[in-house]
Design goal:
With 366 residues, the protein is of the alpha/beta class. The protein is 39% helix and 15% strand. Bound molecules: pyridoxal-5'-phosphate (PLP).
Length: 366
């Protein structure tokens, strides 16, 4: 039967987001023992959920018969208190992806343009395209965001700029002063989205200070995630912080109950669990050292990363796919990143010590 529903061209042109492959799917497809598969493909926290948060999640089941607090009052209070913000500056999301999408839906029309970097997080391109606006991909400089080129790309049509810091999948970080100077030059008619999904993995000297910049830059929005160091990827919760007038506009089109009851309670507890965040960072630092040592021993080039993942380079696309399939067949799921314009690279998330070892042993066996 033919379909007679016409789909707008800008929707037809969208290539679906490709996530890391789930363990169960790989087990089914390759007939592998699920318990032996290691997933290092979606930058999740290898420590799992913090024991403190787990307890709260178990208790939170009493209450799921009711709609969640659509305003997320207690979670916003917890974020505001922790980072010295006003709750009206905060907008909650079903993961930080939801915040990115809300930005696009609130501020972009089909006659606007949005700017992002080549090799930047894939969702920027998708959410822009879905609105019918034009996405402008600025060439990267040695896999890093080239903010000088961003400046040159700004036109009167530019409405939104997306910056991932650190960026996924390259793991690169923009220096604070460079970022601050850039923000000073961007016209106040352009919203700059600073995506800080991996900020918790940064050392003290690199940690973002952007919340404190909001007063000077009312055209700045910072997004954060509970999916990475907080270990709550499956619950889908993130948030944006911006000028309260902009947050108010975004709230008008937000789904009323976009963050569920369990996620809200878990996120509140997680914000208070500094020990778990510290442990997550330490596990990541040690794993990063283990993997970079391993790459060097194997003479494999990689991009130095500030996140909880590393992109490493193979000879060409064919070699990358051969490595990918070899690892997969042997129960190690990593991520091909051809859709990020990096066909000769694979990205591996940092796992626990034994998981990293299995990955490196498999790599060495090729
Ligand atoms: C840079 C970046 N931003 C945002 C996200 C979205 O995370 P979530 O929607 O799970 O909060 C990711 C996830 O991989 C990411 O890498």
């Amino acid at each position: 039967m033919t379909i007679n529903i016409s789909v707008p061209t800008h929707i037809c042109e969208i290539e679906p987001y490709q996530g890391g492959r789930p363990i169960k799917e790989v087990a089914r497809e390759l007939n592998l023992d699920e318990s032996k598969i290691i997933k290092l493909a979606s930058n999740e926290n290898p420590l799992g959920v913090s024991p403190r948060v787990k307890k709260i999640i178990q208790r939170s089941f009493d209450g799921v018969e009711r709609y969640p607090d659509g305003n997320g009052y207690h979670l916003k209070q917890a974020i505001a208190t922790k980072f010295n913000l006003a709750d009206r500056q905060i907008i909650l999301g079903n993961g930080s992806n939801d915040i990115l999408e809300l930005v696009a839906r609130t501020f972009l029309t089909s006659s606007d343009e949005a700017i992002f970097s080549k090799h930047a997080f894939a969702v920027y391109k998708l959410v822009v395209k879905a609105t019918g606006a034009k996405g402008l991909e600025v060439p990267a400089k040695n896999y890093e965001h080239d903010l000088e080129a961003f400046k040159k790309a700004i036109t009167t049509k530019t409405k939104v700029i997306f910056i991932a810091n650190p960026n996924n999948p390259t793991g690169t970080l923009i220096e604070k002063k460079v970022l601050y100077d850039f923000l000073s030059t961007v016209p106040k008619t352009v919203l700059v989205v600073l995506d800080e999904a991996y900020d918790e993995y940064l050392g003290d000297e690199f940690k973002s200070e952007a919340f404190a910049w909001l007063e000077k830059f009312p055209h700045l929005l910072i997004s954060r995630s509970f999916s990475k160091a907080h270990g709550l990827a499956g619950l889908r919760v993130g948030y944006g912080v911006t000028d309260q007038r902009l947050a108010d506009y975004m709230n008008r089109i937000r789904q009323p109950f976009n963050v569920n009851h369990v996620a809200q309670l878990a996120a509140i507890e997680s914000l208070a669990d500094d020990d778990f965040l510290k442990q997550s960072k330490q596990t990541n630092d040690e794993g990063m050292q283990q993997l970079t040592n391993g790459f060097e021993a194997l003479n494999i080039k990689y991009i130095s990363s500030y996140g909880n993942f590393i992109s490493f380079k193979l000879k060409d696309e064919q070699a990358a796919m051969m490595y990918y399939h070899h690892l997969l067949k042997n129960g190690v799921i990593v991520r091909p990143i051809a859709n990020y314009g990096m066909p000769d690279f694979l990205r591996v998330s940092i796992g626990l010590r034994n998981e990293n070892k299995i990955f490196l042993d498999q790599l060495a066996s090729i």
